[in-house]
Structures
1.
Amino acid sequence: MSMRQVSLLERMLAEQVKQTELLEQIAKNQAVLIQALADEQDVDVDDMPQAYLSGAPVHGGR
C-alpha cells in the first residue's frame, strides 16, 4: 500500500472516530432528556404502555 493510501485511510479512520464520538454523545444526551421528561411527568419508564401512538388500546396490558 502506498503512503498516500495509508494517509487517506488514517484520515478516514480519524473522521470515523470523531463521528462515533459525536453519535455516542447524542445518544447519551437523548437518554438524559428521556429520563428528565419521564421524571417530570412522574412516568415509570418500565411501565407497559396502555395505548399505541395511534391511540388504539394495547391488549394484554394491565
2.
Amino acid sequence: MAEQFKISPHLEVVEADDQWIVLNASNYTITKLNKSGGQILSLLKNPASLPAMVDHLRDTYSSVDENTESEVYDFLQKLLEIGLVESVNR
C-alpha cells in the first residue's frame, strides 16, 4: 500500500485571491501557499497517496509532466518537516 498523507488536525486553512494561508495553532506559525500548493493541501483533507495526488493534478492541469511526481514528493516532504501534513501509515 502506498504511503498516505493527510493535513494535520490542528490547522486552519483559508483561501483568498489564489493564496492559501495556513495557521498552525500548535506552534503559532503562518504559512502562505500559492494556488498549486493550496490545491495539493486541499487534496489532503482526506488521506491521499502521492500517486493519487499526481493523478488528480493530471486530470486538473494540462501542464503536468514527468517531473510532477518528484516535485509533489519534495513539497510533501517540506510540509511534513514543518508539521502541516502527517503520514497516515506511520
3.
Amino acid sequence: MAASEKARAKVEQAVGKVAQAAGRAAGNEKLIAKGHAAEAAGHAREAKESVKDSGRRH
C-alpha cells in the first residue's frame, strides 16, 4: 500500500470517529451520519489498497 494512501485512509477514519463523537455530544444526527460515512470511506480506501498490494505480490 502506498504510504500516502495508507495515511489518507487512517486520516479519514480518524476524522469520521471525531465527527461521530462531536455529533453525539451535540445531539446532531447529521454529523453522526457524516462521521460514519467518512470512517467507512477510510475503511474502503484501506481495503482497496490492500487488494492492490496483494495483486503486486503474486
